[in-house]
Amino acid sequence: MTTTPDLTPWITLQGVRKGFRIGTETVPVFSGLDLTIPRGDFVAIMGPSGSGKSTLLNMLAGIDSPDGGTLQIGGARLDSMGESARSAWRAHNMGIVFQFYNLLPMLTAAENVELPLLLKPIAAGDRRARVEKVLELVGLAGRGRQYPALMSGGQQQRVGIARAIVTDPALLLCDEPTGDLDRKSADDVLDMLRFLNRELGKTIVMVTHDPQAATHARRTLHLDKGQFVEERKAA
Amino acid sequence: MGYFRLARRNAWRKPLRTVLLMLCVAIAFLIHGLTASFEQGNMAAGSASDDVLGVASAAGRGQSLPMAHLSRLAAEPGIAAVSWMTRLRGYAVRESNIVAISAVDPATMVQVSGTELGLTPVLMAALATGRDRVLVGRTLAEVQGWRVGQRITVTVPATPNKEGSRDWRFEIAGIFEGASPASDTHFVIARYDYVNALRTRGTDRVEAFVLRPAPGIKAADLARQIDALFANSAAPTRTQSEKQFLQAFMRQYADVGLIIDLVVGAAFVTLLMIVINTQMLAVRERRFEIGVLKTLGFSQGRLLALVLGETLFIFLTGGLAGLALAKLATVMIGPGLGLVLPVQTLGVALVLILGLGLATGLIPAIRAMRIPVTAAFRTR
């Protein structure tokens, strides 16, 4: 079954302002950014370095907060939450896929995937069952006992995706998920993200420099100097 | 994988560093265990009473007093209860295994020191079942591995008995606990009538009278009054409180308590600084991963618990190893050196381990908790 996005706005940014202090000066990144993303969408965000892609992703993830404006995801106002509330919100509603996988080296693949489940009241047996299930979903069945250092980049990124989806979040944020992979591994990862969007209905926001990666998204937004300058929908 | 396992995995990521930290903690608690054992075994002055007076010979330790003093003491105003005792100093099985026996009059002794020694009616009834029955202090019983009902032999070189032997045989009727964990329970309470009847030297003489002042009477005033009473007798006395007596005895060597406190204090301060510094370094090395955990949704409280759990793991493993070594030392060489490590002292040490583990982990844990995610990601 292929899902299509609901057209009701689910992620809404209105008049978002954000700047960084460098010495005594504040360098603005966004000066009134607006964005709406419906549930079930797969949006790629592209743009040159310094355009504000990572800052936008950090704000969507709740690890950075806007200086002004409103940021709402699924009815929750992230801009007015404290850090603890944002952590809890992230743990329950969001998965993040990083460019360099960011797996903990002293844990096995399965233990890395299990990490977000430690934040939920789930029995150890159920946790293990869920971990096995998602590892199978990302094509790593039977590799759970391997340590990240012994895996290829593509495999590590699949572990990263498994960790991001193990709690079954509605939203996946991907920060250059293929930036450190060869073409073949990158395509595998992108196919997987497309599967998660089309078949499981996950809303995905992906920051990327790779135009080919962006073709897997339903639409691509180009960001430049803190403003969206172009929107392209997939054919 | 639970939280504790995650903390343990973090601790073991640099095994050599963790082992060295554990060793550091183990040595500190070995020192603590041994010094606490020494204090427990040799210096019960801290728990000794100011209210119980001992009347000994003014001629010095080892000199006895005539039983005739008892009637004069009993007639003296200001005394609530008076008893008497003599001591046998011997050993069990081998000479280094020293055992002290206080031969007392049970009926009067319980009035004077029954509370401090924890002499319950059940124990006193057990002592009364036979003249050769004895009560053994808890720490001594633990060190010797003695049980109630066991027959023991104590060789007393200076006091032969009427059987022509220096071996004194007793049956353990009970074990007394003392009023508090700090009470001196490293000796045997025997019956004066039995010892007095069997000994060939010093018959009908006592090493000391012990007495409790009547309510409202100052111990120091009563001590002066008693010494004045016997000043012109054939056996003048020197009266001191139990605490004064023990403290004076220990000060013959040095202020052992102060030295012990300084040694242990220095060990712990050094330990705290080493562990705090190392854990701060560990947290600094892991800033990026802490950022990842925060991004996954780990709250500040959970990160605090994670770093504290790691420090507690190091302290518990090292501390328990140190205490185990200290206990082993007291069992193997303790009797000779008077080292005693009772369960209560181990309990206090365990609380200390947990307290120090939390205290040393707190600064690094707070630092980990406060790292902003964006700053953590910049450290890669």
UniProtKB/TrEMBL annotation, chain A:
Q: Where is the ABC transporter domain?
A: 11-235
* Superkingdom of the source species: Bacteria
Q: Which UniProt keywords apply?
A: ATP-binding, Cell inner membrane, Cell membrane, Membrane, Nucleotide-binding, Transport
Molecular function (GO) terms listed?
Answer: ATP binding; ATP hydrolysis activity; transmembrane transporter activity
**What GO cellular-component annotations does this UniProt entry give?**
membrane protein complex; plasma membrane
Query: Can you tell me which family this protein belongs to?
Result: Belongs to the ABC transporter superfamily. Macrolide exporter (TC 3.A.1.122) family.
Official protein name in the record: ABC transporter ATP-binding protein
- Organism name: Gemmobacter lutimaris
UniProtKB/TrEMBL annotation, chain B:
Q: Which domain of life is it from?
A: Bacteria
Give all residue intervals belonging to the ABC3 transporter permease C-terminal domain: 266-372
Q: What residues does the MacB-like periplasmic core domain cover?
A: 22-228
Provide the topology term for how it sits in the membrane.
Multi-pass membrane protein
Pfam families reported in the protein's UniProt record = FtsX (PF02687), MacB_PCD (PF12704)
Q: Which residues span the membrane?
A: 256-282, 303-326, 346-366
Does the keyword Membrane feature in the UniProt annotation? Answer: yes
Listed InterPro entries:
ABC-4/HrtB_transporter, ABC3_permease_C, MacB_PCD
Q: Name one GO cellular component term.
A: plasma membrane
Q: What is its main location?
A: membrane
Sorted UniProt keywords: Cell membrane, Membrane, Transmembrane, Transmembrane helix
| Locations listed in the record | Cell membrane
Q: What is this protein called?
A: FtsX-like permease family protein
Which species is this UniProt entry from? Answer: Gemmobacter lutimaris
